[in-house]
Amino acid sequence: MRTDSSILVRHVIAEITKVLVLTTAVMVIVVAFGAVIRPLAQNLLGPVGVVKYVALATVPMMQFALPFAGGLAATLVTHRMVSDNEFLAMSVSGLSYRSIFKPHLILGVALAVIMAILVNAVIPPFWVAMKSVITQDAAAVFVSTIRDGRAFDAGRMLVYADEAELLGAPDGVSDRIGMRGVVAVEFGPGGVPDTEFVAESAVVDLYRVEGRAGQSRLLMKASMREVSVVRLLDGTVAFVPEASPDAVEVQSGSERSPNMANLIDLVSMMRNPDVSGDSAQRRAEIARMVRSARALALADAQLRRGIAVPFVDDRSGRRYELRAAGIQGGQAVGAPGGAVIIEESQDGRLLRRGRGPSARLEFAPLERGDDPATAVRLTISLIEPMIEGPSSSWPETLDGVRPELTLPIAAITPDALEEEAFAASRNTALLGPIATSIGSMSGVWAELRREVVWEATAHAWMRFAQAACAPLLLLMGAVLAVLMRRSSPLLVYAIAFVPAIIDILLINSGRHFMRDGQLVSGFMLMWSGNAAVAGIVWWAWRKVAVH
Fold first, then answer.
1. I need a labelling partner for 535 at 20 to 30 A (CA). Which of 27, 162, 254, 313 fits?
2. At residue 361, what are phi and psi to the nearest 5 degrees?
3. pTM of the model as a whole
4. Starting at the edge strand that comes first in sequence, how are the strands of the sheet with 386-388 ordered?
5. Taking the CB of residue 394, how many other CB atoms lie within 10 A of it?
6. How many other C-beta atoms can be found within 10 angstroms of the C-beta atom of residue 500?
7. Residue 224 near residue 202, CB atoms below 8 Å
8. What is the model's pLDDT at position 369?
């Protein structure tokens, strides 16, 4: 009997597997062609790109096709065996229903393992490859986006134009695009619009830079002519013949969503959210702001001891010494009846001396090449200056000067940095508006870190729920085929298809709940569909076992 049972197992598994492979192939091809509709509608793919995209999409689409194909294969094969009285013969010969359904259970476990490997290790690289097919011809995407009347999202810059065309690219440049009637918005920290450029014409150069792990970065550099520049934060407007904003990394080519990460990467995101590009960027900005706050605290302590604070302008080589009673609210202030003094010198020779009631200290933009985790650049503005020296003029601001102070090493661990940023945000008596900026940025960073953890957790559990869904749909189709043996197999599958669709929808709905921070309710919702399908399998099994 043991030999007969093993023959039965091999026979049933072989029959279901043949139908499963054929059904999966058909479903995958259909779904893969459906996945290419959106890029085609947006003119993001050419003929060659369509072929590559569809070929690559066949593997990721298996996570959607396999569960339904398994259910259909089990329904068709099991219904045929019941109709041919094979189940009756096996039952009469002494086999229990548990033994008869053993092949389905073995195949279901194998399908769950295959699904778990697919969604956690095999499919993520294919999502990356599919995205690279679209972003590979970034210039064509740029031009088609502009011609469709939409703005091109380059991460830290949003570009809109009336006209766009491809131009011949010089050596070292991947692609060059010419535009007319250009409006570009540059975003600062926290995603706040910072600067708006309105130009008569512009040329955009795209550069590809090889990054870590063989991943390429796509950089965009714009050069504009006849430009009106609007600083949105203070409302200042300027007209310049030419403007060249800093190069930005195109977001669509560099950012990786969690569905492109394997299980190990998802676990890394949960343990260290700063592996995400946005979170790491915010952390670097906060580290720079905290380091600048340290510089102000050290400068305040030094001034209160009667010691001048030296600054240097790396571009001109000029040195400055600040003398004041201390720092309050982000400003250097003089003693009662005294003044704030700034002396300018070069090569040891005093050039000018400025006096005023106070001096405003503000963060200055980082220069390219500076390490945002360590660099300190400040803008010093002497209020109502009185000048002593050969020149009666005094610059309105000392822009981007560096304090020559020995600063402690910046906090490395996220917890230490978060704690120090929180303390700095409450020290408004010393830092003033700087403390508010640190508090605001810390809030954004903390929210991003939470979102990364929620997103990674949601994707990890969704993948396990998908893996568990596949064997449940297979078993549900098989048991319902026996229970409804007098009905058409397609009717049986149609009835089983309804809870299967609801299960898939609940899994994805649970993921959305978890990524929004509702971890417990999202988890319960995600697995409620599988629980319902398992309940249907148990109910149908009991009915079959009784009869």
1. 27
2. -110, 125
3. 0.72
4. 326-328, 331-333, 358-363, 378-382, 398-403, 309-312, 319-323, 340-346, 349-356, 386-388
5. 20
6. 21
7. yes
8. 46
